[in-house]
Predict the structure.
Amino acid sequence: MYLSEIAEHLSSVQELTAWEVTNIKHRKSQLYTIFQDVENIREVTTEEFQVRIYLTYERNGQSFLGESSFVLTGDDLPRPKIKSALEMARLIANPPFSLPEPGSTYPAVKTFDAKVASDPVYFLEQIHGELITFSYPGIELSSSEIFMAESTYTLLNSNGLSASRKETEIMVNFVFLAKNKDKEGEIEGLKRCRLYNDLNLAPTLSQYAAYARDMLTAEVPPTGLYDVIFAEEALDTFFNYFIAQASGLAAYQGWSQFKENEPILSNTKGERLTLISDPLLPGSMKSKSFDENGLAPEKALVVENNIFRNRTANKRYADYLGIKPTGDFANVVVSPGDYSLKDLMSPTPVLYLLKFSTFEPNPVTGAFSGEIRVGYLIDGDKRVPIKGGSISGTMSKAMQEIYFSQETTRRESYSGPLAVKVCNVNVAGR
């Protein structure tokens, strides 16, 4: 089956208003270990065609857009699936929007590592070698999974748009086992990137080995109000409430509290948030030259010093709202602050939290909670490992006094301060 054949089938269905089809090819190489022994190495190649169809109709004098999607693989025949999708589409009553037209200039985005794609097994073995030769007192590698993926996306739509991009992905998932005379425990680490030179695994292994060691003697923190410093894994989802509130979806459905050129938070102290959506960061996981509809996403200044400036929206919600499409929020870029990490550690006591079971603020209310998996209670000269207990609050209240470190970091889809300090957070512990 070829992309052009599917496009011909779709073009021949007169009832369709529009359609889009994306050919996705994955070549994955995977290496699994138990302790230091290789359990399995395998390579998997997959190909599928993701198809979405649209048809417009009127009901009671109002225009609606019906839509449905399906996937073709292997020997699947397009026509039966198109027929079934048409039946489903007639049950959907969305407002109409238009698909992107051809003629866009797609930016060059560095998301493909040609060396990894040419010999993924070599890089699997290089990473495996780094894992098994890593040494830290009292720590051993319990297991690991290493993945290399090369992906190609080719999109066509009924307007004549054609776009293609390539990506590579490297993922290293490892588990360290820590032991002392009284107990043992495990800690899991994960690192993802697109380019091998960005992997820089050694510092991550050292950090997680130290955490595994410290968690053997970790305590549950005392209950109370604390200033809390979020860092490392906690930063991956910390700003998700603001991302959701700034979206076209939130505005269209009526639950966004953000208004253009007005503060996102009132009565703030400390420093003010500047938040950018950037789909062009080299090697970042949310960088791409076009989105699922073929739109070239744009860098957008979303929040500037606590003032809401621009809403992020894909083509659908941009049409619904009558605004320029930027694409959905991409990589999170946050401006650094005026304080060093050392400065943020005082006054004490302060909690320095790095890893939660989950930390996902509610997109509508901003309410958050998270069970602490790895952290430290800093109190004067004492640095006590903590585990267990939880934090809770709302982003609107928590962010009223916030500070950002001068030091910066890059994570898989985050670029910004190494640490973010939030004042007066509820901690439930012992």
Observations:
- The first helix runs from residue 3 to 11.
- The chain has eleven helices and 20 strands.
